[in-house]
Amino acid sequence: MAVAADNEYPKASNATLIGASVTYIAGLFLLFSFAGPYWIESYPEMFTSFKRMGLWEYCFDHFRFPAYQFDKLFHGCHYIFSREFYVIREWLLPGWLMAVQSFVTLALILSLIAQILLACVIVRYPLRTVLRYEWIFVSFAFFMVAVSSVCLFLAVAIFGGNCYRRDWLLYPSFNVLSWSYAFSVIASILFGIAALLLYLEAAKLYELRAEAKNLVAQMQHSQPEHALNQLRDQLHQQRYGWNT
């Protein structure tokens, strides 16, 4: 009996569950894109000294930078801020690439916060806070997911428009966009879909909250039993009607 009584609170709606699921899937794509060293790579049959790069790593095969006055070969995969790339970091990290890094990092942070908020809504923890401010939780999650989608769109647009510049990687025609870049594109689309679902759900929750306030106000001016029955029917509709 105690277990049944504890489970009588309204559960998260299907729209919230679907929106959260899409957000989590998009977050995985974003995480793999953020960490993956395959935003752009060279065609294997070209045998160029540049092999591949990600947001935080470059891979070379005995690469000689023409503008460097000493005869130094850059070889292997290294972190972009490592000592190995110190002398050519300004060339490896132009301003537009730093903007891409910033947008992707911001999208990752905001999406993680949104996932935490949505997890709280789904598991109903803390229970009192979530039931009272659920529309605020979902609204904040919507905002963060929407901003993540926009940031990723800007990141892939900037990178796609500048990755074939001749003042960046040598022989750009020998390179091709790879799966880490594609994952960012997919994540941007999925975040946009999730943001739409969460926006619709936040609007429904806000309307329900306004209706509940109106019913409480009616209790002060009408028969208490009639108002209580209306409030009970409203909660019943939220609990069973929205989750069908």
Describe this structure as you would to a colleague.
This protein is 64% helix and 10% strand. It has helices at 2-6, 14-35, 89-92, 95-123, 127-162, 179-219, 224-241; strands at residues 40-42, 50-53, 57-64, 73-79, 175-177. A 5-stranded antiparallel beta sheet has the order 4-3-2-1-5. The protein starts with a helix and ends with a helix.
Biggest sheet, spatial arrangement of strands: 4-3-2-1-5
Stretches where pLDDT is under 50 for at least 5 consecutive residues are: 1-5
Radius of gyration, whole Å:
26 Å
The end-to-end distance, rounded to whole angstroms, is: 25 Å
Instruction: Please outline the major beta sheet.
Output: 5 strands, antiparallel
Helix-strand category: alpha+beta
Number of separate helices: 7
Number of strands: 5
The string of secondary-structure elements, in order, is HHEEEEHHHEHH
| Quaternary organisation of the protein chains | single chain
- Strand portion, in percent? 5-15%
The level of helicity is 55-70%
Identify the overall geometry.
Answer: elongated
Write the layout of secondary structure elements.
Layout: H1 2-6, H2 14-35, E1 40-42, E2 50-53, E3 57-64, E4 73-79, H3 89-92, H4 95-123, H5 127-162, E5 175-177, H6 179-219, H7 224-241
Antiparallel strand pairs: 1-2, 1-5, 2-3, 3-4
Helix pairs in contact: 2-4, 2-6, 4-5, 5-6, 6-7
